[in-house]
Amino acid sequence: MHHLVMRRPHLRDLPPVNPLPPGYELRLAAGDDDLAPLAATLTAAFDDPWDADRVRRSLTEAPDVPAVYVVAWRGRPVATASSRWLPARFPDAGVVHWVATHPEHARRGLGAALVAHVLHDFVGRGHDAAALETDEYRIPALRTYLRAGFLPDYEVAGEDHRARWSAAMPGVLGS
């Protein structure tokens, strides 16, 4: 079974990158010092083990990831999102990749700020659209993506995802 896919068919009328709460800073990942905190954030957010080597392979040194952004709290990354380029799969689109917020810093708008920032990054890279992969149980993330102008893609790699989207929407819409 494939991840759900969402697409933003254009990069007009992008959401603003809202100011972060005091003490937080949005910036590019800054080398080896950010690897361990990024691994801790991704592990906590996805309940999947990450270490510095996986962060390097999947993000900071991945040839298809031109930028890894973080939100740092007192200099330490606690949220992240990346700009990815997968022309074989999404030829006209930048891909929002590995959006994560450490649970201790959730519900502060960090994910929304990162997603908006990555969308603006795509404009600078000449993309015309955006895409992302997610899962139906990531309800706060789905809300963030819908607010940022992403729409569900109902068919992915020959799989019909309408039932999965229908099951997720009551939670997304708060009903």
Automatic annotation (TrEMBL):
Signal peptide range equals none
Query: Is Transcription regulation found in the keyword set?
Result: no
CDD domains referenced in this protein's UniProt entry, alphabetically: NAT_SF
Q: Name one Pfam family in it.
A: Acetyltransf_1
| UniProt entry tagged with the keyword Acyltransferase | yes
The alphabetized UniProt keywords are: Acyltransferase, Transferase
Outline the extent of the N-acetyltransferase domain: 24-170
Q: Which InterPro entries match?
A: Acyl_CoA_acyltransferase, GNAT_dom, YpeA/RimI_acetyltransf
Superkingdom, according to UniProt? Bacteria
Q: Which GO terms describe its molecular function?
A: acyltransferase activity, transferring groups other than amino-acyl groups
Q: Which PANTHER family match?
A: ACETYLTRANSFERASE
* Protein's recorded name: N-acetyltransferase domain-containing protein
Q: What is the protein's species of origin?
A: uncultured Thermomicrobiales bacterium
